[in-house]
Amino acid sequence: MSFKELFEMQEILNTRIVDEHQLHNEDLYEKRLLALLVELGELANETRCFKYWSLKPPSSYEVILEEYVDGLHFLLSVGLDLGIKDIEDDESLQRENLTDQFLSLYQRIGELQGEKDISLFRTLFSEFIGLGDMLGFSEETIIEGYKEKNQINHQRQDEGY
Fold it and tell me: What is the b/e burial string over 137-147, where b = at least 16 CB atoms within 10 angstroms of the residue's CB?
């Protein structure tokens, strides 16, 4: 499945934010990587996959989906920073469990800080989609969730967020 439409939507949002916040002379790549790490952590927190000491169940499907697509916004932004405008997810990469999947994603993001490598980004993207699979999200659900949150993000900009 192609993610071209989402890259286009993200580029529009990014351009709007850069214009409205006068960030034309600022390199946002590392801030976007950090934002992706933070969103990934928020997602892991909602899944509670690493909280071996707790019996509390994960958050609702809707909350987890919203955190997932928050991360997707920054993942797409990182891809755009690398000059990627479309990507095909031919084979989602999945680890044995959610904890391993999150740790692998953190590692890939860290590697992208040191080396702006398109091949590495493609692996990261595939692992991120694999995480969505592991969380029970179809690509259609991910795309619809992204579109809904993108609209909210534009509305937030309208309101001076």
Answer: beeebbbebbe
- Domains along the chain with CATH numbers: 4-158 (1.10.4010.10)
Structure tokens at 106: 């953190």
Rounded to the nearest 5 percent, the helix, strand and coil shares of the chain are: 70, 0, 30
Q: Could you list the pLDDT tens digit for every one of the 161 residues in the chain? A: 679 999 999 999 999 999 999 999 999 999 999 999 999 999 999 999 999 999 999 999 999 999 999 999 999 999 999 999 999 876 788 899 999 999 999 999 999 999 999 999 999 999 999 999 999 999 899 999 999 999 999 999 988 87
Can you tell me the distance from the alpha carbon of 104 to that of 128, in angstroms, rounded to the nearest whole number?
10
**Long-range CB contacts (< 8 A, 24+ apart) of 149-156?**
149/66, 149/69, 149/70, 149/73, 150/9, 150/10, 150/13, 150/73, 153/13, 153/73, 154/13, 154/16
What pTM value is reported for the model? Answer: 0.94
